[in-house]
Structure formats: C-alpha cells, structure tokens
Amino acid sequence: QDGVDDRQQRSAGGASVGAATRQLPPEPDVGDRDACSIGVRLPDGRRVQRRFSRHHTLQAVYDYCWTEMDAALRDRPFGLAPMMPGGQFLSDYSQSLQDAGVANSLLVLRWRD
C-alpha cells in the first residue's frame, strides 16, 4: 500500500489526530539499540523529528507526518521522499525503515497533486 489510500480511508472515516496518534508505535528510548531518528521537512518549512524503531514501517512515519500537518491540509494527497535533488517518492509503506534505507535520515513531504 502506498500510504495515500490509507490516509484517504482515515480521512473519509473521520478519524481525528488523536486517533491517528494512538495508532503510532511507541517512541523508543534514546538508548534503544534499534532506535533511529527520522526528520521530515513539511511543506510549510517546519522540520519535525521523532524516534522510531528501525523495524517500524514507513507507514508509521507517514501517519506521524499526518498528525503534524495543519488540519486544513490533511485531505491533500502527499508522499515521502528522501531529502535530495530528484529524490523519488518512497512507494512501499509496508517496508521497515531499515529495509527502505531511511533509518537516521531526513525526508521531505511532497504533495502528490
């Protein structure tokens, strides 16, 4: 699944930020050997950062970004891409952060339309 469908289902179902936040996996402790830090540049210029386990999926990062977005923008389709010129959208949101090669990296949230 590419994340967009999940967000659209969540939006269509009227889920709140609180509900989405409850679905996020717990943030690992700083000393956890499997912990990694993911930073995301949002379209409004803000940068958000959170710890995840290397075994969490890209979907967890996507859901986290959704909770950090301005409420007026949550219906707009978006994707995540590596923060590099020409970085392509990440496509398999079921992949672990480690398998996707994004553990301890900076991503950018881009609009899909």
Automatic annotation (TrEMBL):
Q: Where is the UBX domain?
A: 31-110
Which species does this protein come from?
Answer: Ostreobium quekettii
Cross-referenced PROSITE patterns: UBX
One GO MF term: ubiquitin binding
Could you name the Gene Ontology cellular component terms for this entry? nucleus
InterPro entries given in the database record: Ubiquitin-like_domsf, UBX_dom, UBX_domain-protein
UniProt GO BP = proteasome-mediated ubiquitin-dependent protein catabolic process
Region (Disordered) spans which residues?
Answer: 1-36
- Recorded protein name is UBX domain-containing protein
User: What highest taxon heads this organism's lineage?
Assistant: Eukaryota
Q: Which Gene3D superfamilies does the protein's record reference? A: Phosphatidylinositol 3-kinase Catalytic Subunit, Chain A, domain 1 (3.10.20.90)
Lineage, broadest ranks: Eukaryota, Viridiplantae, Chlorophyta, core chlorophytes, Ulvophyceae
